[in-house]
Every structure is written in C-alpha cells, then in structure tokens.
Amino acid sequence: MNDVxxxxxxxxxxxxTPRLAAAGVAGPLFISVGRPxxxxxxxxxxxxxxxxxxxxxxxxxxxxxxxxxxxxxxGEKQLEKPPDFKPPKAMGMGKWMTYLKNVGSLSPVPKGxxxxxxxxxxxxxxxxxxxxxxxxxxxxxxxxPGATPNIEEVLAAAGAA
Length: 161
What we know:
- With 161 residues, the protein is an alpha/beta fold.
- It has one domain.
- The chain contains five helices and five strands, in the order E-H-E-H-E-H-H-E-E-H.
C-alpha cells in the first residue's frame, strides 16, 4: 500500500472511498478551522462522512491550516475570470434546512466576539491536495467557496483513476 493521502476542506470523495482504498490511498482527510465541538457537530449533521478522518485548527491565527498550505482568505486574491464554482448537486430540501439551521453555530467565530465585528475565520478558503510522502501530486487552492477541483483529476493524480 502506498502512502498517498488525499486532503481537502470539503472534498467530494467520500463516495470514491472504495476507489481510493483499491489504489492504496489513505484518505480523504478533511482539515478545517474552528473548534473541536464544531467539528463534532459538523460530522454529526453530515452522516455521509461517517468514518472520515478529520482535523480541526483551533488556533486564533489559523497557523495549522496555513501550514497545511491553505493560505488564501476570501477577497485576498483578485480574480481575473469567474471561478469554476460547483454548487451542490445532491442537496435536497432536508439537507438545505440542516445547513441553514447549523451554519451559524458551525462558523469559525471566536468566543467573545462583539456584535458587528467580522470574524476572520469565515473568510478562510480551503483547497485540495494529493500527497505521497513529501511529494505533492496534486494541489488546488479554492478561489471562492465551492470552486473545487474536478474529482476525477484528483483521483487520477492520486493513482485512483
């Protein structure tokens, strides 16, 4: 079994776990910002992620997230063209209601924040990587939320095509 890991803030590959495992890929691994209680809540309201490996960066400056290569915040990069935004395809009314009910409590807002202040955590953008040991096989930084890479490209880079 090789040591390739596929990571991503919200990689749409849980459905592809059998393909990843067959190729010897350990992943996906989800990395996000927030608090441990928020990660627990997120996993509870997304049962399709049962068994997913997940890490949370609860540092006030997102140092762990940035160390993982997620270095962009919304608005920091001038867009030259519209991003390749992929809206969710499989969200029925129930899933949308769950999202709307939980979005506030899952947002990375620091404790003690005053009304009217804008939390930096909600501007943190993610990305997707396929990593083999120290070698990065695939890298994509989201320009806006939802501007994720084509999953087939990620799987091909990880050897799971």
